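[agent] plan:
  1. take the single chain provided in the ticket
  2. run structure prediction with default settings
  3. attach structure tokens to the ticket
  4. add a short note for the reviewer (M.T.)
[agent] executing step 1
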Amino acid sequence: PYADGSGRGYYGYAKQGKQLTDEQIAAIETLQAKHFDTMQSLGKEFRQKQRELNALKYNSNTDTEDLQKILADMNAIEDKMYAERQNFASVMQNEYGIELKNGYGMRRGKMHRSCY
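[agent] step 2 finished; step 3 output follows
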């Protein structure tokens, strides 16, 4: 399955010419698990806010301030997700020399919702 030389982990360390020790790979896997848990938690928070927004936006009695507050909360969560991805990528680059490409994580970039 690794005919392209992409073995030693999820990110194809061999493709980047990395010779990692088993200890480094274990540390990376621990870091990945922590990052995944953080992103999963933030994703759940974001989806909860989406459900709240959907419930309010179709209600004719909804105050626009309530909608704006939920949108602000969603943007704050996306900012946290973006910062977490940037931090993870920085640690991988600085400590292990592994460059992560765009698209790692639950979202493909920093997206702000200005309206729905």
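[agent] step 4 note for reviewer: The helical segments are 22-57, 64-96.
[agent] ticket updated
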